[in-house]
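Hey, quick one: can you model this chain's 3D structure?
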Amino acid sequence: MPDTTTPASPKATSSAAKKTVRPRRASSAGASKARATAARSSGASKSKPAAARTNSTRSTTDLVGDYAERAVLIPVGAALLARERVVSSVTDTISSYSSPAKAQGQLRKFEHRGSAARTRMEREVRKTRTRVERELRERRRELDQQRERITKEVTSRVEQTQSQIEKTQAQIEDALRARLEEGADLANRVQERVLSLV
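Sure thing. Here's the predicted structure for all 198 residues.
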């Protein structure tokens, strides 16, 4: 049986495409112009304040619709971006280990990074140990200097005290010797007087 359907004409096809493909949303300025034109054409029966009230209500509705659409589109876009990042990271990982040569290259990179980190850590440990040893030497030197100074001070104090004790002892001995000599002179005088009286 032959096909009885005739192909659509180009004009019909373009008009059907124009009817089916509609823009998602007109801009707010274009929409308000269209509404104003429609209100003017059908405004014979409506008053001017009623038309203005209708325009403001429709613009408020458009704003609410815009905000609602943004509230839906923002999380969707964020989720899509996160998904793309995850997919790209997984793709990079898979491409990095897709062959033994690439895997060996990655392992060499990791080994190089590890050895560099170990070298840096050893250098830091050596620096820290050197600094601690230097500080300990300085503290030990300071302690030795303080000990020597304290020892000298104590020795000088002891020597001063000993010299003072020796001076005091000599003064006491001189005073006792003088008193003994005075006592002996007194005894000799008394004895002479007693003998002269007898």
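One thing worth noting: The mean pLDDT is 76.
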